[in-house]
Specification:
Layout: H1 8-20, H2 46-62, H3 70-95, H4 99-125
Helix pairs in contact: 1-3, 2-3, 3-4
Length: 128
């Protein structure tokens, strides 16, 4: 697979843009009830609130309106999932201090960049 060099700043911008979308053809607010994902404390720690927001946006983005194309639907749902992983990794880099977890977060950002670009290109090619 061809690797794409994308800076963390570009990933941040792309992730923020994609994750802030709350309407449109690829989102369906009533498809899946994720309330069973409970167990999150209602912490007021900045990192916890950031994780909760990123997780909520990821799950919202994964609630797509299905097309008649399973490949397109896969790419659209997985795009939000990968962008959510990048967002959470960025939160780890901003707030975390453990060298092992910081390295893992950076590796996640680096690995997801090429896959995000591939899915965005496929979605654009399919017109969806």
């Amino acid at each position: 697979m061809k690797r794409f060099a994308i800076t963390t700043a570009l990933i941040s911008a792309a992730t923020a843009t994609a994750l802030t979308l709350s309407s449109g053809a690829i989102f369906a607010q009533d498809k899946v009830d994720h309330s069973a994902h409970g167990g999150h404390s209602m912490s007021s720690a900045p990192w916890a609130m950031a994780y909760d927001a990123a997780n909520a946006m990821m799950h919202e983005g994964m609630m797509i309106t299905y097309s008649d194309n399973p490949d397109l639907d896969f790419a659209r749902a997985m795009l939000a999932h990968h962008q959510g992983a990048v967002a959470m990794a960025q939160i780890q880099l901003e707030h975390g201090t453990d060298p092992e977890m910081r390295a893992l977060a950076q590796a996640i950002i680096d690995a997801q960049a090429a896959e995000i670009a591939q899915m965005q290109a496929f979605i654009a090619k399919m017109g969806g």
